## 1
Amino acid sequence: MTSERAAPDVASVCLGEARAGAIETTCLPAESDDAVERTVACLRGGGLVGLPTETVYGLAGDATNGEAVARIFEAKGRPRFNPLICHVSDRDMAARLAVFDDMARALAERFWPGPLTIVLPQAGGTPVHPLTTGGLATIALRQPKGIAGDIIARLGRPLAAPSANPSGRVSATSAGQVMRGLGGRIEMILDAGPSELGLESTIVKLERGRLVLLRAGLVGREALHEATGLAVVAPDAGSGIEAPGQLRSHYAPHGSVRLDVTQVEPGDYLIAFGDAPVPGADGAAEIVNLSPSGDLREAAANLFAALARFDRPEIARIAVAPIPQEGLGEAINDRLRRAAAPRD
Ligand code: TXA
Ligand code: MG
């Protein structure tokens, strides 16, 4: 009797672990014949790839696919939705995603492909998902060197890719390091040996005729000045430019935002989650459900669109149903708290 009972218990434990998300991570040498093809197929299907670039390995996903981008945050265990760099295959792809002026063109011409990320106004109607850009009107672009460029060209879409390490750990500069940090959470790792540079890209933002240095890197101030003739300046203190997601009331919509709402007031605009009805929801002016099935990945992918939809001057009150504080829920709730914070 005892052993008969023990067997199903063991089986259900294993099933539970499989459901918890362990996936098989395939490591493929970058020089193998089908490396580009297999990586493109994986990315096209919404998969995540540890991708070599000349700076560090990236945790890459299709920047136009919200659920793939949500999985990037989930795999990294990032507690907030910082905007991610969009990697492009060439300047034509970049020009479809952002508004380039002469200075931006000069930077791209001089430093791409290479370790420089340029933050520019986003072009209208781009297919880039708002979770990639953190809902910002700007976009960070970089054309990496090497096989990553070939893969993006073949995919025909930009790749979102933060460094391929769990949040809070050092950036991965080898396939083995990516495997140790993210194995079981991503589909593939492409092994091209140690990263050539081993340091993340320099990030600059073109703003009011100046170059704001958001992150120092191998492309130095002098080279940036020489390429453009522009002054290279540090971000204004307290501007929150460097990490826009950290501004307390960033992305706040016009109306007030109430979180963890268990009673909807008549006329509220409701952001719902899951299938349990919130009391009073019948009286809501409009309801957007982040994920009727209660899937946090889907909810993350829909979050910025939901906030944008209710960001209208005539909307005074937005109510948000409780969202579980687990996995991606932590980053979702972080962003909602910023939206709800008192306005500065
Ligand atoms: O070398 C690199 O840049 C590597 C490789 C993989 O390309 N990528 C990388 O990405 O370091 P990540 O996500 O770890 O760093 C992106 C930085 C973040 O600090 C983010 O705040 C900033 O870029 N960023 C992204 N979009 C931005 C925007 N629109 N405005 C300001 N900062 C932005
Ligand atoms: Mg990083």
## 2
Amino acid sequence: MSVMYIRGGTPLEGELAVHGAKNSVLPILAACLLARGPVTLYNCPKLTDVTAALGILRRLGCRVKQEGHTIVVDPAGASGCSISEEQMRSMRSSIIFLGPLLARMGEAHLTYPGGCELGPRPIDLHLSAIRALGCEVSEDQGIHCQGRPLGGEVQLALPSVGATENAMLCAVGASGSTTIANAAREPEINDLQSFLNLLGARVQGAGSSTITVEGSRGLHGGEYTVMGDRIVAATLLSAGASAGGRVRLSGVDWRHLATVLSVFHQAGCRVESRLEYVELIRERNTPLKGVPTIRTAPYPGFPTDAQAPVMAALAVSQGCTLFVETMFDSRYRHVSELIRMGADITTEGRVALVRGVERLHGAKVEASDLRGGGALAAAALGAEGTTVLSGLSHIDRGYEELEEMLKRLGADVERREV
Ligand code: EPZ
């Protein structure tokens, strides 16, 4: 097992290019099943969730090669239509393979992806979308789907990111056309649309609440560069706000982080965003100010994935911040660990009241989910003394070598096997 030793109290100073987006590369890898020729993907992050997705593609008969941040998938040999329980549990979003499997094979057998640290992860919207596209779905001891999709009208009760992506991927293989209403508008869905259209699909409307898909009989191969990870960027900016200093990041479209940048501006940071970079500056002797209310919401609202890292930064501030987490039942697991570091936070259901304190102190803390782990690292950089952070397997799901990124920004951090 490895742990991170983080010595706080030193302002950050540095710049780096943010790695590719986990929440974009995962649906794009699943979409490779729709291609008849090889696909080359650039700017792919080296994450355990990506490794798990590559394992699923291999078990389905694809040939897969990863060299650094480049992945080549040759789906020509894909023949399987079943994903084992073990594989479904290896990655939280394995359900994203359902749509492309049905589009390619006309059949899919998999199990429930299981809940995760954030609480139950229902898939009812995914299954209702698949049914609306004309496939038969039975849930007798697992998920068993038959029938090539026909296309049709998908009306999502919630703008679910995963259900929108599954509906898009299934609809690409349909015989007719599809309209997806109340679609999620996250930037990763635009990235998926761009990728699919590069391979010859005809998808329109990503970024709006209505997406249309023309059915097609298989796509050709191609090359694509995955977008940068806006949540990793939000985490690194939170580290800068927490420790003070200057952090400059490139590789992400800053319009995708407008709500997060606005919060840091309100908290007293200097934020400068240009096409090619964003820079956050917080003078060490200028404490952050509390921000009245931060309510998470589907894009373009404040991203739920940035809630924990931003809370970690605002734990040391003048004044209070009220967080309302509208997306998941159990997304405050980092709070107890922040309290161990001296934070003053009260939670009641999906509401968390952060009363800013003058400083945090180092402690032994454990990450229990991906973004909560990023939050604890950000808090440790602003704390006095040394923090020992464990639970790094959660962090490695979505941050590529977080300790190296922080070192590049001037942090005193070390990862050791214990
Ligand atoms: C995606 O998860 C992201 N994961 C999550 O990021 C992110 O937090 C979430 O979108 C919201 O932005 C990936 O893209 C791989 P949803 P997803 O379906 O698709 C409910 C991270 O840290 N719902 O938009 O699973 C659900 O319970 C991860 O990188 C249903 O009720 O999220 C939630 O309350 C964590 N039924 C809400 O919708 C369904 O069938 C939004 O979930 C599906 C979802």
